[in-house]
């Protein structure tokens, strides 16, 4: 019986796959877009947790891991088993787990990825890990996901301050904090960052005696204090002439209230 020959035409060459039992001429093979090296699975220890993962994802996205893992290692070397793991110091187990879940989340269910499900504190920790390991492409992906999610004003400011979003993305959040009925407290300051907290408090204090044009003045002062601040467009109620919320301490009216029984 004649051998079966499958031909695959490509732009570069014509590749013949000969399944004949008789030996044929040697062909130079090329690696496909997916090629997992034998032994590419390594065991990592982070805190008291061990992970067994494909190193392809780490070396593909991080030059730091590339330098660490592409150095020749024997089959019984570091990372070869749970008894001889690669220990990652100064990293929390949850943060490393979140990073791996970005790689292993099914593409048909992207909302299950930590990029779309992590809390603000978890997201900040993940951003720090991506920066630490120079995973620039993943960090850009994380920034895009962050800006698609709903956050409170404080969370927006915290994420923008950590480089998780463009500064202009948090501009409306700054304005909301400045015009809110109550000033942010120390806990809010810790969460949003002390520099942002100081900017909000300073603007609120300067606006305290200005009953009119508070929004415009707030935008002017925030632009001087917050890098990248862009005045957000007025809300619908402001466009209809409704007076925006006034900061704490703002006079409600320029007219003095007459004392009972006094002449006008």
Automatic annotation (TrEMBL):
Q: Which part of the chain is the BTB domain? A: 37-112
Source organism superkingdom: Eukaryota
Q: Where is this region: Disordered?
A: 227-264
What's the name of the protein? Answer: BTB domain-containing protein
- Give the source species: Schizophyllum amplum
